[in-house]
Write a structure and sequence with these properties.
The protein is of the alpha/beta class and 318 residues long. The protein is built from twelve helices and 14 strands. The strands form four sheets. The protein has a six-stranded parallel β-sheet, with helices on both faces. A three-stranded parallel β-sheet has the order 6-8-12. The protein has a three-stranded mixed β-sheet with strand order 9-11-13. Bound molecules: serine.
Length: 318
């Protein structure tokens, strides 16, 4: 990777991944692509190049790729699961028409490309415990439909045109810089903000709802190590199961409460979020990622909680 373009650089993952890539490859080698209305701010804006890149406008991708001689793209744009249910056409337009544009540009200019998939690419008929790498993928959400299509289209461009497409299936990502928006797993971020602000947390999914989750540093490492992996070792490409921890609301609440003794949580179940969460795996089997590119997470629920609370206390002056 010499020159990298991050599309969706001001989103939850993009805002941190862009900075991490700049740290590793040099500020001037990492371009922050954003859309009008979601301009980069602070260090993200001042530390390196940026430009408007809208996946639904192929030319805007091409302009950035040519201008900065891009050889690697991280395509992070998507509508998350809950919001995609209320705007399915938009979710498709951004997720798939946009992906098509990105893939066409990468084919023409010979770039490698990472377009994440998700635990949302699985559905009710998928085995829920230790979900295998290769298994049934029949999701009923629009988010899931776009993610399965992302995997298939990315593999198609690899086998048909030799484009270097690679991806992981991200679990719920927990982070403290840019909040997620419109996802089913967002509660596991929101709960930390409530704990640090001294507010009672209203949990939108039931006790006993297990989902796979991951702390942002591990998620970034996964994306970068996969893109750096020796292609000769990769039997899979789009997309690898990766796992770090699986918990339900009771478990994350109990872990936070050890550090914030007065913290309270009540349940007010959101039926849409609950039905989406119920259709997703409880935990993924990430053996292939471990074998093919040495994937290994660093954070578990306890160590993530300690770090999240510390970072949020500093951020919120608490
Ligand atoms: N975090 C996503 C969501 O909840 C799942 O990949 O929609």
């Amino acid at each position: 990777m010499k020159n990298i373009l991050v599309i969706g650089a001001t989103g939850q993952i993009g805002s941190e991944l862009t900075m991490e890539l700049r740290k590793r490859y040099g500020n001037e080698h990492v371009v922050a692509g954003y859309i009008f209305g979601a301009e980069p701010k602070g260090e993200l804006a001042t530390s390196g190049p940026s430009g408007i890149v809208n996946v639904t406008d192929r030319q805007s991708i091409e302009v950035a790729v040519k201008k900065y001689e891009i050889d690697t793209i991280y395509n992070l744009v998507a509508l998350l699961s809950v919001v995609a249910e209320s705007r399915p056409a938009m979710a498709w337009k951004i997720g798939i028409d946009g992906l098509w544009n990105v893939l066409e540009v990468t084919r023409e200019y010979g770039c490698a490309v990472f377009t994440p998939s998700s635990i949302g690419s699985f559905g009710e008929s998928t085995p829920h415990v230790k979900t295998p790498q290769d298994t049934v993928q029949r999701p009923r959400t629009m988010y899931g439909v776009t993610k399965v299509t992302t995997e298939l289209l990315s593999d198609y461009y690899h086998t048909k045109y030799g484009v270097d497409t690679r991806a992981v299936r991200f679990p719920g990502i927990i982070s403290n810089v840019t909040p997620p928006g419109g996802g089913t797993t967002d509660y596991a971020v929101d709960i930390y903000y409530s704990a640090v602000k001294g507010e009672k947390f209203i949990c939108p999914v039931k006790a006993g709802t297990f989902m796979d989750m991951m702390y942002m540093p591990d998620a970034m490492n996964a994306a970068i190590s996969l893109m750096e992996a020796d292609p000769a070792r990769l039997k899979h490409r789009n997309a690898f199961n990766i796992a770090a921890m699986s918990f339900d609301p009771e478990l994350i609440y109990a872990t936070i409460k050890k550090h914030v003794p007065g913290f309270e949580m009540i349940y007010e179940v959101d039926p849409l979020k609950q039905s989406i969460a119920d259709s997703w795996p409880d935990s993924l089997d990430d053996t292939c990622a471990r074998e093919e590119w040495d994937w290994e997470p660093q954070y578990d629920l306890e160590s993530m909680t300690v770090d999240m609370l510390e970072k949020l206390k500093a951020k919120l002056n608490k």
